[in-house]
Specification:
Blueprint (H helix, E strand, L loop, with lengths): L13 E10 L5 E9 L5 E6 L1 H4 L13 E8 L7 E10 L7 H16 L4 H20 L13 H19 L5 H10 L4 H4 E3 L6 E3 L1 H7 L2 H11 L3 H9 L20 H15 L8
Parallel strand pairs: 3-5
Antiparallel strand pairs: 1-2, 1-4, 2-3, 4-5, 6-7
Length: 281
Amino acid sequence: MENFERPNLTNMELVIISSLLQKTKRGDDYRRLSLSTADGSATYPGVMWANDLRKFQEERYFRTGNVIKLTNYDPPSTYSDYVIHDFVLIKEGKIGLSLSEITETYDKVLQYVKNIKDAKLRDFLASLLKDYGEAFKIAPAAKTMHHNYLGGLLEHTYECLEIAKDFLDKNPKIDRDTVYSACILHDFGKIWEYTIDTDTGAITYNNSFTYKWVSHSQWGYTTCMSAGFETVAKMIATHHGRIDWGAVIDLDAEGLEPIHYLLHHIDDLSAKFGKTTVMDL
């Protein structure tokens, strides 16, 4: 058997890249961790078993972005994980946008709403933001895939609006009101689809919402269709691209207009190149 030399992590400052609480076959808690050096040049897989986890009852210890030092661990053999027994928290990571960043970004989204010329559509958006604006400000855009932090949905929405603006400036014949409205509402249902702990940043699924609505896309499609905004609704319905990716309407479906494809690409650009995780803040 080939020997694999593993670096000594004692006294190294390591950043928590991801942390996932799981259960063994016996039903005991354990946690998988991915740690990295401060410059991101190396990553190390770790695991904490139930007996050691009892020393860390608060979820905040495992927040993404936390800087820690391992004080007791077993090095891995071959390809296995570092078995972490104890660590000290050096610095708590961010859990999302600051209050000032949330306020600033929300005001920018509101400005897009105010610039919508169609009064019925503008009032529709303003009403939703008036009723659910506080939840919209803090909601994540996903659990793991992108913008998975406090204020992530707001940040993602604003990024989509900015991407759309650049495209529309070069394509002035496309209806701005429709595209901006689709950008604002395409993930709006996520304020119910996910819950986020504002103290720890921990994100969970809201099973009661998914049981009723299936997904945020279905909520957006149904809500906009009911209000009479068919093009906005279809853009939301197709923005995941494929039904097996979560779309309500597949982009391969017959009868779609070019505008129906636009939101999919805008959303995808933000999800892949925007501030995708709390580590980007």
